[in-house]
TrEMBL record:
SUPFAM superfamilies: Metallo-dependent phosphatases (SSF56300). InterPro entries: Metallo-depent_PP-like, YmdB-like. The keyword Metal-binding applies. This is Metallophosphoesterase. Fe cation 1 binds at D12, E43, N44, H178. Pfam families: YmdB. Keywords: Metal-binding. Fe cation 2 binds at E43, N71, H151, H176. The active site is at H72. GO terms for molecular function: 2',3'-cyclic-nucleotide 3'-phosphodiesterase activity; metal ion binding. CDD domains: MPP_DR1281 (cd07382). The keyword Metal-binding applies.
Length: 261
């Protein structure tokens, strides 16, 4: 349908394994979905925690248009310089004096699209209220295609956020838990929604990391060094078709793609 704008959103990329998975699978996804715009969550790009210029350069070289993030964006000091690149977002509801922006409007062949990034607060840091932050951000702004990455832990908070924004944005896409949910849908007023889009990295892992370290931390309750897992690589994502005139999602499809190790 030529009147629709097509978006691929790729779930949290976990370290080198995630970067390798995306490199091996991105061209197939482009050929299948013919996206106008590609977004990835990249807060775990560098060794599973934070971002670096080397890793973001790699991701952009694959044809990615925007990198969103979350609470791990601050884990590597390179964020200070990297967040000067407005294609890389940090959550909008962190303190405004911090480097970077939480939203960016892109123009794609005459079509305006805004990507917005926010963090939840349940079981996470006590940030500014994401509901009030997004409400203030949208106030008196012209309508356009808007994709929201809501980086949050609690399912109920994510679902509440989706319903809160139904009809106000084109899509609310949950990130952070690294486990893809099977509840993708178009809400009553035309907003595409999924509780968590999942991750890109090793399926043979605990949320992308080697099982033994995760098990020791869980069983013994002591700190462990987490290593990015390497086997059984997957790409989790979401495909959206959005109507260019009313900015509503008209098609939504989960992506779960196996790639070779």
């Amino acid at each position: 349908m030529q009147n629709n704008f097509k978006v691929i959103f790729i779930g949290d990329i976990i370290g080198k394994s995630g970067r390798n998975a995306l490199q091996k699978g991105i061209e197939d996804l482009k050929n299948i979905y013919l996206p106008d715009f590609i977004i990835v969550n990249g807060e775990n790009l560098a060794g599973g925690f934070g971002i670096t210029k080397k890793t973001t350069d790699i991701i952009f070289s694959f044809g990615v248009n925007c990198i969103t993030s979350g609470n791990h964006i601050w884990d590597n000091k390179e964020y200070i310089e990297l967040l000067k690149d407005e294609r890389i977002l940090r959550p909008l509801n962190y303190h405004p004096d911090l480097p970077g922006k939480g939203a960016k409007v892109f123009n794609v062949d005459g079509i305006d699209l805004e990507v917005i990034n926010l963090c939840g607060r349940v079981f996470m840091q006590p940030l500014d209220c994401p509901f009030k932050t997004i409400d203030d951000h949208l106030k008196d702004k012209k309508r356009m295609i808007r994709i929201v990455d809501f980086h949050a832990e609690a399912t109920a908070e994510k679902q509440s956020f989706g319903f809160f924004l139904d009809g106000k944005v084109s899509a609310v896409i949950g990130t952070h838990t690294h486990c893809q949910t099977a509840d993708e849908r178009i809400l009553e007023n035309g907003t595409g929604y999924i509780t968590d889009v999942g991750m890109t990295g090793s399926l043979d892992s605990v949320i992308g990391f080697e099982k033994q370290g995760a098990l020791k931390r869980t069983i013994y309750q002591i700190p462990q060094r987490f290593e990015v897992a390497k086997k059984n690589l997957i790409i989790n994502g979401l495909f959206l078709e959005i109507e260019k005139s009313d900015y509503k999602t008209v098609k939504i499809e989960r992506i779960f793609k196996y790639v070779s190790d």
